[in-house]
Each structure stands twice: as C-alpha cells, then as structure tokens.
Design brief:
The protein is mostly helical and about 170 residues long. The chain folds into 2 domains: about 10-70, no CATH class; about 70-165, no CATH class. It has 6 helices and no strands. It has helices at about 10-15, 20-35, 35-55, 60-70, 70-120, 120-165. Helix 1 (about 10-15) packs across helix 3 (about 35-55) and helix 5 packs antiparallel against helix 6. The model has no long low-confidence stretch (mean pLDDT about 70). Bound molecules: zinc ion (ZN). Zinc ion binds next to helix 3. Zinc ion binds near residues 7 and 35.
C-alpha cells in the first residue's frame, strides 16, 4: 500500500527535485491543487530534500552532532548498550578462549575428523557431527544467556537513572 491517493508518485518526486519540464511542471502543480495525497507527498519530499541537502559535504558532521544532541537519552542508552555489548563480547571471547580453549581445539580436530570420517564411514560422521554441534551449542547458549543478562542489567540501570532524573 502506498500513500492515500492512487496517483503515480514519480512526477511528484521529480517536481520536488525541480527536474520536470516547465509544461509538465505546470500540469503536476495543477494536479497538486486538487489532490491532497499528492500535495502531502510533495511537501514531505520538499522537507526531506531540504534535510538531505543540509547533510551534504562539510556540514555532515555538525548535522550529525545536532541530531545526536537532539536525542540525548536515546543515543546515550544506545551508546551504553553498544559499549556494554562490545565489552561483554570481548570478555566472553577471552573467557571462552581460556575455559574452552582445549574444547575449541577439539572442535577443530572434530571438524577434521568429519572430513576424514566422511571417507571412513557414515556412522562415524554422524557421531562426530553430533559431538561438534553439541559443544558449539553449549558455548553459544552460555554466551547468549550471559549477553542477555548484561543487556537486561544495563537496561534496568539506565531506566532507573532516567526515572531518578525525571
Ligand atoms: Zn494525486
């Protein structure tokens, strides 16, 4: 479903871009006066063009900063979440390497076993694949649960702080 009116939006976009021939432009402008759907689309497109225009070149940085300042709570929360996620992933990776280091090596050997097992026999392949998948699943579940916990904790901390500020 597009817009409120069944018209082709393409001429409206071209009118907003100023890329229509004068005669066609008069036509479309006349249509806009009688069609609120196209009129709304035209105004929205003009605003979009204006904001896109202000994003260009050396102004991009200041506009981005302006947008970030306009959404302080949201961007802080997002930044906190991303920072926490990055730290957690880093920690989890190092812990996993320490705790599961040998298992990871086993996984690699298992993967090679899968290849050789393919040559050796079908039953062996199934056995090795299941063993490898089981270990990978355990690691993935542990990491997933830990990440969920930390995200929940960060979210709680942030919403509590926002409640105090409000
Ligand atoms: Zn229309």
């Amino acid at each position: 479903m597009k817009g409120q009116c069944p018209c082709d939006p393409e001429p409206v976009f071209e009118l907003a871009d100023g890329s229509l021939a004068p005669e066609r432009e008069r036509e479309i402008r006349a249509h806009l006066r009688g069609c609120s759907g196209c009129q709304t689309l035209y105004e929205r497109e003009l605003r979009l063009n204006a904001s896109l225009g202000s994003l260009e070149f050396e102004e991009a940085n200041s506009v981005c900063r302006g947008v970030a300042m306009a959404l302080p709570t949201r961007s802080t929360k997002a930044r906190l979440l991303w920072a926490a996620l990055a730290v957690v992933l880093l920690l989890t990776a190092s812990v996993a390497m320490m705790l599961y280091g040998t298992n990871l090596a086993v996984l690699v050997i298992d993967a090679m076993n899968v290849f050789w097992g393919f040559v050796a026999g079908f039953a062996d392949v199934i056995q090795v694949i299941f063993a490898a998948i089981g270990q990978a699943l355990l690691v993935a579940l542990a990491i997933g649960a830990f990440v969920d916990l930390v995200i929940a904790a960060v979210y709680l901390a942030v919403s509590r702080r926002r409640a105090i500020e409000a």
